[in-house]
User: Fold these one by one.
Assistant:
Number 1:
Amino acid sequence: MDKVTIKNRIRELRFANGEMTQQALADSVGITRQTVIALEKNKYYPSLELAFRIAQIFKRPLEDVFEFQGHVSESKKAKP
């Protein structure tokens, strides 16, 4: 299986939004501060729902917050 990485800009966006604390972000989306720490360190990948909630907090499209790095091989691509 191909290695997939999801990078994020959460820390950068927190500081761009009035230096929002990890706790304030956690409270806004219903997670713990420890989860925010893990997300920022790329040690935890959010569910799709959580990713959208975080993007909404920053008023950004999902792709501005999270970046998918990797590729899907031809044999694993979904067929139309």
Number 2:
Amino acid sequence: MIEPPYFAVIFSSHRTDADAAGYAATAVQMEALARRQPGFLGVESVRGADGFGITVSYWRDEASIRRWKMQVDHQLAQQQGRQVWYERYEVKVAKVARGYGFKKDAG
């Protein structure tokens, strides 16, 4: 678990039917690129059969988020997303002040 405080970028989207055009490959590339960015802490992502998905990326601070938003390859992917892959999306940035979890023992 990441020790708070940190920031979460919550990207909720609804995909178009244009499943081709390199979406999967670009998603893999963007995650690999994000992992190399200063301040990146992790990512979780889910997508339903109806095309709705949520990706949450975690960052040490808001400056790291701004640098990621302005990263050239990420900007190109964003443009492609608006033109081809997404019907709509919404981005929320939140500061995580507290976190906790549960994990059942294997035994």
